[in-house]
Amino acid sequence: MEFSSKLLENAVYEISQLPGIGKRTALRLALHLLKQPKDQTTALSSSLLKLREEIKFCTNCHNISDVALCEICANPKRDESLVCVVEDIRDVMAIENTGQYRGLYHVLGGRISPMEGVGPQNLTINSLVSKSKEGIIKELIFALSSTMEGDTTNFYIYKQIESLDVKTSTIARGIAVGDELEYADEVTLGRSILNRVPFENSLKL
Question: 161 near 132, Cβ under 8 Å?
């Protein structure tokens, strides 16, 4: 792709580094921004900079937050004895959109995947185990994607807390095997949370 401007070429390159955006789409976005009022582009770049520099991770659940303790964890109406274990922020948003869940979350930051070089030490599993040992958590709901990596992660965590007095369950398989949680429709996902099953039962499938 030939460019008449080095500035445009650099902008297209940076935009194309975003997931799912190729050079042609990046060029279209860059040209669109050029047509917009300058203050609109400035607002966009400013919000991205602010996001990168000021965003925090909740000290309790590792969810993305503006403050040390996220709004969900700080909400006294949430059930702190019930914790839903998810891969990332998108899964928290998907479950919250169902309006069916009133417990807390624990964001792992991914799932165990030896092929991608992701091991238990790369996730927030240790802090989850530590919290489970405190005696406040009565049930962990495994809400990871129904993939081999998701199931491996579920099983690893289950073995870490097996001796503790913590009930483990997994969302019902209304979510098809191999599906990513964030793409499930709200009704199906909500029912999967409500109709969760003991994790031990899922091992027999």
Answer: yes
What values do phi and psi take at 101, rounded to 5?
-120, 130
List the chain residues with pLDDT less than 70. Answer: 172-192, 194-195, 197, 200-205
Pick one of 2.60.40.1120, 1.10.8.420, 3.50.30.10, 2.60.40.10 as the CATH number of 6-54: 1.10.8.420
Fold adopted by 57-202: Dna Topoisomerase Vi A Subunit; Chain: A, domain 2 (3.40.1360)
Break the chain into its structural domains and give their ranges: 6-54, 57-202
d(CA 181, CA 146): 8
Q: What is the pLDDT of residues 44-99, one digit of tens each?
A: 999 999 999 999 999 999 999 999 999 999 999 999 999 999 999 999 999 999 88
**CA distances to 42, 78, 128 from 201, in Å:** 53, 27, 22
b/e map 151-181, b = 16+ CB within 10 Å: bbbbeebbeebeeeebebbbbeebbeeebbb
- The pTM score is 0.77
